[in-house]
Design a protein that fits this description.
Helix content is 29%, strand content 21%. The chain has 733 residues and is an alpha+beta fold. The protein has three domains: 133 residues; 358 residues, 3-Layer(aba) Sandwich (Rossmann fold); 211 residues, Jelly Rolls (Sandwich). The strands form four sheets. Strands 2-1-3-5-4-6-9-10-11-12 form a ten-stranded mixed beta sheet, sandwiched between helices. Strands 13, 15, 16, 18, 21 and 23 form a six-stranded antiparallel beta sheet that branches. Helix 1 runs antiparallel to helix 2, helix 2 crosses helix 3 and helix 7 packs parallel to helix 11.
Length: 733
């Protein structure tokens, strides 16, 4: 073809279709997919060219050949945007427009050889080069914060300082790693001829009705099996010894099914096994996403059900006197762990475990009833399944990263709040929010980018923790949880109350924790009604001299729901305010708040936005006021008053610091964060436990057994906004 203009416009088509094809995972070699995409792009552009040529023939007035070339190129790139690149329009078309402008300027220069055309070409190339630089640059950290990352109360020492062993250090057991499965996997030898133990397949056809159409066709072509014969494949990390050992299963989340995910939790498997816990990474790649389609959450019941079928298999092996695994497992000590959609799957499995039938189809009988003692959800979803699972009588832990651009909010706190303790067995639930942790690095094979190319080039990766640091956090908290739940080792419980006690084992980073034990007595949770002055017939609330007092539902950064209400309190001290008129929030009981001895007062506190603190007076205008900057830290006093009017006071900072808002910049372009993610932060609460002994120490005549008033006195920070929830106490054990 002798049309130079058309040949020049092929250049951006070749580049962009090549990029798209290379990163389009089908199981074929990436180079082959790139060549196929380039040929497809060229063919599409030629078809567009012929279409416009036909239009030129019909409408004789169009006779400029270069217009046809440009139109065909532009049309091809628009089609690629619609069907391929998931970039925001403004970025994609800016890049494509720049590339086309380079082509036009190059054509102009080759045609005229003028100085002006050369300067224009150079200018446009520099602009395009800068755009490419921005895409290849890792990004930046715009929110530097010198606030202390760890804080402990007066006289407190870290667990390491008092001789407690680091839970992320390997234990004394040698680890035997092997796989079990169908033995017929045609893609992976570890689940083919290399399996140590063969397992039967299971029929999931009544649980996954969406296994049809092209999703069915291409998956069965790839895997060699269908929904009626799902395999039970697992990677085992086995402590060497007689046992019996506790059993922990971990399951991955959604990812490209041909980029296998089950090998990404060896860092947890090896650690837990070395500490005497059999750990299995479960293979559910065959229900993951694929170019032929994603089940969009319809597969969540299967993800959960398969975990329970794996437990059935382990129960069978354990009870078979002739099997090498006979007696190896303590089936009374089981823990489920899951990441991403797997994190939601483990909560669903916890709900299914006690049911007689599948709730979406009663023709599927359930008979599991395993003693699942603990559930761990890592950066989970909580919206894929169309039912809200309410866990009961199980220990629970959830971890979430602030820089998770896949699951941008702490969804794991929703099942945390729904969880119910209904018996007298001591249990607990905990949450850990990790600043600068992303989604993918909790799996060692998913990598630093939570999206695949080309979308990943927009992500701001510079602020992230390293993979080793992020996995270290997971090891510390998950191992500590497992030690407590599966081995009755309570030495690590304090780190869930105050992460500062684990500072010697963690990277130098902001972390926030939630923690609640099963016998916690909640006095106020702001969920009951719209009357902000009362809780019950016997408990009332009053606010004095507050600039802001309201109860509201907390939102996520994208304006979704946290499914939690809290009280928002704002204050502004001035020199004219006396000690007796300091802003305060008072909870009063007509009866005694408690009758027996109490170990600690508990409440959840988070920093609010100083912009919420509005006033008509210039003196209380917080815009640009450093005194109202939450980065400086808020503090206030907690005052208990007994029936005789004796009071005792503890500053919140005497326990630990109220963490400032942990702001994030997910992408390299601020406007994209607003469009794709939402706000730079969302309210994150952390739990505070204030020992009653702290109050007794500060007031000798104070009687902590006959408390009538609980007050928050805002006398420590000149002005500020805090969010408070779940006020109550822990009985003395």
């Amino acid at each position: 073809m002798k049309n130079r203009q058309l040949l020049l416009t092929f250049i951006p088509t070749i580049i962009l279709t090549g990029i798209y094809g290379y990163h389009f995972l089908t199981g074929l070699p990436p180079i082959l997919m790139m060549l196929f995409a380039i040929l497809s792009g060229i063919l599409v552009q030629i078809l567009f060219y012929l279409l416009f040529k036909l239009i030129q023939f019909v409408f004789k007035g169009i006779d400029a050949i270069y217009i046809l070339a440009v139109l065909s190129g532009v049309s091809t790139l628009v089609a690629l945007k619609i069907f391929g690149f998931g970039w925001p329009d403004v970025l994609y078309y800016a890049l494509v427009g720049s590339a086309l402008l380079v082509i036009v300027c190059l054509w102009w220069f080759l045609r005229t050889k003028s100085l002006f055309s050369f300067l224009m070409l150079s200018f446009v190339c520099i602009g395009l080069g800068y755009g490419i630089y921005l895409l290849t640059n890792p990004g930046s950290e715009p929110y530097q914060n010198d606030f202390p990352k760890f804080s402990v109360g007066d006289g407190e020492r870290s667990l390491e300082e008092i001789g407690v062993e680091n839970p992320s250090e390997p234990g004394s057991f040698e680890v035997d790693a092997f796989t079990y499965g169908s033995g017929s996997d045609k893609k992976r030898t570890e689940y083919g001829q290399e399996v140590r133990f063969k397992t039967p397949t299971v029929d999931a056809s009544l649980l996954l009705l969406e296994w049809k159409g092209k999703k069915k066709k291409w998956r069965e072509k790839f895997w060699g099996f269908g929904v009626t014969e799902f395999p039970l494949n697992g990677r085992v990390y086995m402590p060497q010894g007689d046992g019996p050992f506790p059993l922990a299963l971990i399951v991955h989340g959604n990812h490209s099914m041909i980029d296998y995910s089950d090998d990404g939790y060896g860092y947890l498997g090896n650690l837990l096994a070395s500490r005497g816990i059999i750990t299995v990474s479960v293979d559910e790649n065959f229900v993951n996403g694929h170019w032929s389609g994603d089940f969009r959450g319809k597969e969540m019941p299967v993800r959960a059900w398969l975990l329970l079928k794996h437990l059935e298999q382990w129960q069978a092996w354990n009870g078979d006197s002739g099997h090498p695994l006979s007696g190896k497992v303590d089936m009374e000590s089981i823990m489920l762990m899951g990441h991403s959609r797997g994190g939601e799957a483990v909560t669903i499995a916890g709900g299914y475990n006690r049911l007689p039938v599948f709730p979406d189809n009663a023709n599927v009988p359930f008979d599991f009833n395993f003693n699942i003692k603990g559930i761990v959800s890592i950066a989970p979803t909580d919206y894929r399944y169309n039912r809200k699972i309410v866990l009961k009588d199980v220990n629970y832990l959830s971890l979430q990263g602030s820089y998770d651009s896949d699951e941008v909010s702490f969804w794991g706190l929703r099942p945390y709040r729904r969880l119910q303790f209904t018996d007298s067995v001591p249990r607990f639930k905990a949450g850990v929010y990790v600043h600068h942790a992303n989604h993918g690095q909790f799996n060692s094979t998913w990598g630093k980018s939570d999206f695949g190319a080309p979308m990943k080039w927009l992500l701001n990766l510079e602020p992230l923790l390293s993979a080793e640091e992020q996995q270290q956090v997971a090891q510390v908290f998950i191992s500590a949880f497992a030690e407590s739940v599966l081995k009755n080792n309570d030495a690590y419980i304090p780190i869930f109350k105050n992460v500062g006690l684990a500072k010697d084992w963690l990277p130098d980073e902001f972390l926030m924790t939630h923690f609640e034990v099963s016998d916690f007595v909640k006095l106020v949770d702001f969920e009951e009604d719209i009357d902000i002055t009362s809780v019950s017939d016997s408990i009332s609330i009053r606010g004095h001299h507050l600039n802001l007092w309201k109860e509201q539902g907390l939102t996520t950064r994208d304006n979704g729901r946290q499914d939690n209400n809290a009280v928002v309190l704002g204050w502004h001290l001035s020199d004219s305010i006396s000690t007796d008129t300091k802003p305060n929030y008072e909870i009063t009981s007509e009866k005694l708040f408690w009758k027996d001895s109490v170990e600690s007062i508990q409440l959840s506190i988070g920093s609010g936005d100083p912009k919420w603190l509005k006033s008509d007076s210039k003196e209380t205008d917080v815009e640009g006021d450093k005194d109202a900057d939450p980065k400086m830290g808020y503090d206030f006093s907690l005052v208990l008053t007994d029936t005789l009017g004796q009071s005792a006071t503890v500053k919140i900072s005497d326990i630990k610091n109220i963490m400032p808002p942990l702001k994030t910049k997910f992408t390299k372009f601020e406007f994209l964060d607003k469009d794709m993610i939402g706000d730079a932060w969302e309210v994150q609460l952390q739990t505070f436990h204030i020992p009653i002994s702290k109050f007794e120490k500060n007031a000798s005549h104070f009687d902590p057994k006959v408390i009538k008033h609980i007050r928050f006195v805002f006398d420590q920070s000149p002005k500020g906004v805090v969010v408070v929830d779940d006020i109550g106490y822990n009985p003395l054990k």
